[in-house]
Every structure is written in C-alpha cells, then in structure tokens.
Write a structure and sequence with these properties.
alpha/beta; 2 domains; 9-stranded parallel sheet; 3-stranded antiparallel sheet; globular; disordered N terminus
C-alpha cells in the first residue's frame, strides 16, 4: 500500500500522537537486535511510532543508523532507546540531542540531570516500567510519558498483569500512559483507551512482521508457538525475570549446574565486551564487585553482560536453538506474518469498529 493510500485510511488520534508526531497511537518498542532502521522506518511510514534499539547497535554504527532512519522515513519523528549502564550511554545521549530525536525510551537509571538535559532539548522522555512505584519514581525524575508493561510482555517483565497495572498507574499519575504487555490487535487498543491509556506499545507483534528482519528460521519458531504456557519467565539468563519462548538452549540452562552456567556466561560475555567497547578493567571491576557482594550471584551477573549475545544468535544469526528468544505471550495467538502497515491498519480499523460498537450500546438519555 502506498503512502498516499495510507493517509486516506481511517485514523485514531489521541494526545500521544501530537506529542510523538505520529498518526496512530501505536508504538513499536526497542527490541534488541530487532528494532533496526528497517523496522523503525516501516513502523513510522505506517503511521506508528518506532524506537531504534540503541542498546544493541555497535557504537561505531549508531549515528549512521539514526541517519539511515531519517533517509528512509523522510524525516518523520522516531525514538531512540538506551541504558545508562552501557559503555556508550553518553554517546547516545549526545546523539539524541544532536539529531533532535523525538523521544527516548529507557528503564531505570537516568538521573534528573540527564533527563533534564533531554527535556530541555525538546525530547520526550518515555521510560518503561513494570510497577506502580517505578512509574511514580520515573515521573519524579522527570519523565513526561510512561509506558507500563504488564507481566504478559516479553523480555524483562514484572509479575503484575496489564489489566491490574494499567488502571493503577492511570489513576495515580498525571502524564500520558502507554500500555504494553499482551497487545496485538485492535481490541487491545480499544481496551487500553477504555482504561485511560493514550496508546499501546508492542514488541512481539512487530517482531512477528515481514519488516522485522529477523531470520526466517527464528520467525518460524515464533509462528509455531501455539501454547502461551510455553512462553514462560526464567531468571537464568541474567538473574532478572525474562519472558521467552521455551527452546533447546533455555532447557539446557535449566538443567545445567551453576558452575556450567558461569562458564558459558564467561565465554560469551567476553564476546559482548568486545562488541560494546567495555575495557577489561571495567569488566573485571564488575566481576570483583559482585564477588564481594554475593558470590552466589556471579553466574547471573556475568550472564547480564552475556544476554545480548544469546539474543543475537537467534535474532541476527538465525540460530534459534542456540540462543534465547524474548517473547510476549501474544506470540501464541499470532498465526501469520504481516507487514507493519497491515498490522497497524488492521489494529486501527478493528479498534474503531469496537469503539463504535460500544458507543451503540449506550441508551438514549
């Protein structure tokens, strides 16, 4: 479908669209190794808002990828994701300001000074949180939008389901709220708006598109995932709860003794160190600090540096049996791959249909 035909399709606009500069209140999250220029551009061209995964893009390539998104989208607004613990965090902050990125997404980490600098540059600060207290803290630090992710979501996630977390946060804050975790079609968008959110954010739904760039062998694993109970949470990758597709590698980690997990982690964490530019001194300092604080958690701490390598095996190298695959539970109900435009147009059309149907239920005064 051409850009012209897209602009003639139905639109569903909320104040979030004005803030982010997009046509529809549909956000594509910054999935590591997945949310590159191609996916961000496809999302943006379809009227959504895409985040570039700055946390896994090599430091020497990140600026050229930002420029590439601009080239592909005709200068439409998009976002950039970062983590304060990554070695090139300052580079990403500088680039966000230099290139006038519309919004940044992050977890906990940036202080008021960092967030203040971004907001002074006109950048929307839009962290993702999984608990009410984290939403309140993020706003205290300066966030002017919050994305809440319920436990149904993929990757790092909390234990509170979206249907509980979303109304909690909406009732407690005075900034726009975006709902994530368990969304994949227009019924979800209509429900999120009914709860008081201003839009939805999705990762797995955009990963499972023809625009994602994920290798076919890995995408096939997602399409074949028909049992939501097999898209489960594990703490073995980096010590924090992550929701992933069950596969050979995850089952191996579950059977392996702690020493073997540590050995596996050390081997690939060294690879990640080279990719990120972390010095040997920085890596050893992190390991020593962990040994002093809790020797029993060394394997998990090292795996935190190793986790991106495990994702890369699946999402870039196309080896789904040899890495991990972050996934929301919605993968079990997505039976086919569509383009970003088909996904977003379908979500908006169905949301409008459901909202009209609900309007029809109202009795005359």
């Amino acid at each position: 479908m051409s850009a012209a035909s897209s602009t003639s399709s139905p639109s569903l606009r909320t104040p979030l669209c004005d803030l982010l500069g997009c046509r529809h209140p549909v956000v594509q999250t910054a999935m590591g190794w997945v949310a590159g220029p191609g996916l961000v551009a496809a999302t943006t061209a379809a009227g959504g808002f895409g985040f570039l995964a700055g946390a896994t893009i090599p430091a020497e390539r990140i600026e050229s990828d930002i420029v590439r998104v601009r080239e592909l989208t005709g200068d439409r607004p998009f976002g950039l994701n970062f983590h304060m613990f990554q070695p090139n965090a300052q580079q990403l902050l500088d680039l966000a300001v230099k290139h006038r990125i519309r919004a940044v997404s992050y977890g906990r980490g940036p202080d008021k000074k960092v967030i203040g600098r971004l907001r002074d540059a006109g950048i929307v600060c839009m962290p993702t949180v999984g608990a009410l207290k984290h939403a309140l803290k993020a706003i205290e630090m300066g966030a002017n939008v919050v994305t809440i992710q319920g436990g149904e979501g993929g990757g790092h996630t909390g234990s509170v389901p979206t249907t509980v977390l979303l109304p909690q946060v909406v009732d407690a804050v005075r900034v726009p709220v975006v709902a994530a975790g368990g969304f994949y079609d227009g019924r979800g968008l209509a429900a999120a708006l009914a709860y008081g959110a201003q839009g939805i954010a999705m990762g797995t739904r955009f990963l499972m598109t023809t625009d994602s760039g994920v290798p076919p062998a890995t995408l096939e694993r997602y399409v074949q995932a028909r049992d939501a109970e097999q898209i489960r949470i594990s703490h073995l990758v980096d010590g924090m709860p992550q929701r992933m597709l069950a596969n050979e590698y995850l089952r191996m980690l579950e059977r392996a003794p702690a020493f073997k997990r540590l050995r596996i982690a050390l081997a690939s964490a060294w690879q990640w160190k080279a990719q990120t530019g972390m010095t040997t001194g920085q890596a050893l300092a992190l390991l020593w600090r962990t040994l002093r604080e809790d020797a029993g958690s060394v394997a998990q701490t090292v795996m935190a540096a190793n986790a991106p390598v495990l994702l890369e095996r699946s999402m870039v190298q196309g080896l789904p049996a040899e890495g991990v695959m972050s996934s929301g539970q919605v993968a079990a109900v997505i039976g086919q791959l569509q383009s970003c435009r088909e996904v977003i147009d379908g979500i908006v059309a169905l949301a409008l249909e459901r909202l009209d149907a609900l309007q029809g239920l109202r009795s005359p005064a």
